[in-house]
Amino acid sequence: MQIIKKILSPLRKIITKLLIEPSILDSHINRRIWHETNAFRWAAAYLVKNQITGDYLEFGVWKGNSFIESYNQIQDYSKMFYAPGSTLGKSGKDLTNKFENMRFHAFDSFEGLSSSSNGNEPIQYFEGNYKAEESLFRSKLEEAQLDMSRVTITKGWFSETLNKETAKKINLKEVAISYIDCDLYEPALSALNFITPYVKTGTILIFDDWFRNKGNVNEGVQGAALKWQQDNENIYLQHYYSCDTRTALFIVQVNGKKIDQNINSV
Fold it and tell me: Helix H segments across the chain?
């Protein structure tokens, strides 16, 4: 009997842990999806635990997979964090979920990639690739049961749509998190310039395709981020997390003491 108890005791602890905190299985379950999921989970945890409020903006949404994943991660993590049975709940603190009305903004041409003449770009970066209809994107969101009253969709080339008029139209006040999946230098820089007035210390930026263009720091998404910081000396990016071969997360620091690090060395 004692032997059986010794065998079952650790199993009981594991089962209890899973019942209380099933999210610990996420890292294993999500292996079957794609590694970007890890980036969204880390971003959601950071936002909620630091109470970084504002809107979510995604530049380059394609069919909506990442948009849906970000929405779900933020919703799920915030509900868990503000739950009555959580550590916060037991402390007697205010349990008002600061993220339950968070707004999510999608930007895409829905025409695929624009043309580019840079010789270091990978072969999959050809004009028109990653094209998806706006109707498909919208239907994916509805199928995933996103609250569409909290979602805006801006269609068009970034050079034409990312301006003050669009910011006013979607009532943009603050950026809590932005996922920049533009692939190319020009649209990535347009996205960064668009959010400049709305980022703050604590805003988190997720860059896809960070190590494309053979890792050249002056090209692609890396080059856009570098140029953006050169043009805005009061802003620098603090490295937060990297995953897979292309995704990198940074925390925006505004008018603070600069950390001695190269954003291109992550």
Answer: 2-20, 26-29, 36-50, 65-81, 87-90, 134-143, 158-161, 164-169, 185-195, 220-231
Share of the chain above pLDDT 90, in %: 61
Q: Comparing 50 with 119, which gets the higher pLDDT? A: 50
Max intra-chain CA distance, the chain: 74
Q: Across 82-86, 87-91, 99-103, which has the greatest mean pLDDT? A: 99-103
Report the candidate in 96, 101, 108 with the shortest Cα–Cα distance to residue 150: 101
Domain map (residue ranges) of the chain: 1-32, 34-254
3-state secondary structure of 236: strand
pTM flag (> 0.85): no
How far is 238 from 252, CA to CA, in rounded Å? 6
Fold of 34-254: Rossmann fold (3.40.50)
Count of beta carbons in the 10 Å neighbourhood of residue 94:
9
